[in-house]
Amino acid sequence: MENKNTKRLLSVTAKNLVLALSITALSATGVKAQQPIRATPSGASSTNTSGPKIQFATTVWDFGREKAGALLKYTYIFTNRGDQVLEVKSVQPSCGCIPAGEWSKLVEPGKTGTIPIQFKGTNFNGPVSKTVMVTCNDPITPDVTLQVKGTVWMPVEVKPSFAFLQVTAGSQRASRVVRIINNEDKPLTLSPPESDNRAFAATIKTNPPNG
Asked: Which of 15, 67, 121, 172 is most deeply buried (CB count within 10 A of its CB)?
């Protein structure tokens, strides 16, 4: 009798143990299922659900290396990633050399807008770096800075641009050298210098390439 009772007791205990383990596992599973699920931001494809959101395809216009005087044009493209109408209130270039054209004022959610920009580097020679400030009703990013950069080169350079001659009481003449640099591939032809003042005289000396 004792062996039968003992076996029955062990059997009941084993069933209770299995049941307890099952309940514990189910409880642990329930706790895990109750944890909040957080979505990972997806970058450019994300959508702001709390108002308008401006997002530019690129904020930098690098026009490379261009000859002075060339009229360059570029259009910045932006998208409203929010759920409300995006209003671009102002576009303010940092220099009059990069005027902005007619830009998109109101952009519906999911739609794109444009900001056209021009650059004419007539008086530039060397690296150029300018900015354009865009102000909108995006609550997170109300101000966006666009950049314009590149290099402008002069076909013909004169260094220095102005030559000053200083004649002192102890000397009766003064001289100054002005370099004329041809940056183009084709030869540059110069005519003899002329002056309506006999006190000034100038001569031209041609240096070999890279000389």
From this structure: 121
Report the distance separating Cα 16 and Cα 18, nearest Å: 5
Q: Which two tokens stand for residue 193?
A: 């210098």
CB-based burial label for 28 (10 Å; 0-12, 13-18, 19+): exposed
User: Burial code of 88-120, b = ≥16 C-beta within 10 A, e = fewer?
Assistant: beebebeeebbebeebbeebebeeebebebebb
Residue 53 has phi, psi (to 5 degrees) of: -145, 120
Has this prediction a pTM greater than 0.90? no
List of long-range contacts for 173-179, beta carbons under 8 Å, 24+ apart: none
> How far apart, in whole angstroms, are the C-alpha atoms of residue 126 and residue 148?
14
Distances (CA, A) of 119 to 73, 113, 154: 6, 20, 16
Does 113 or 185 have the greater pLDDT score?
113
pLDDT for the residue numbered 207: 72
